[in-house]
Amino acid sequence: MSLVEKRSVTIRGHRTSYSLEKPFYDDLVAISAMRGITLAGLVAEVDAQRPREANLSSALRLFVLEQAKLGATERPGS
Hints:
Layout: E1 4-11, E2 14-21, H1 22-35, H2 39-49, H3 56-69
Antiparallel strand pairs: 1-2
Helix pairs in contact: 1-3
């Protein structure tokens, strides 16, 4: 089982943090690269779309899961 790592990011001028297991973080990095945007930009997009009662870490996990279901995180040789 993966350990959760806490990371910080600046979104719309304020610092916030989120905690993700390495596989979720790695897929988030891959998705941002495929989209040609920064990781902070992708986190900001997810943050803007999440319901206010949902925490950012959960919203990021659900986003990665949704993208995986759509096949957006497929890697050669996987």
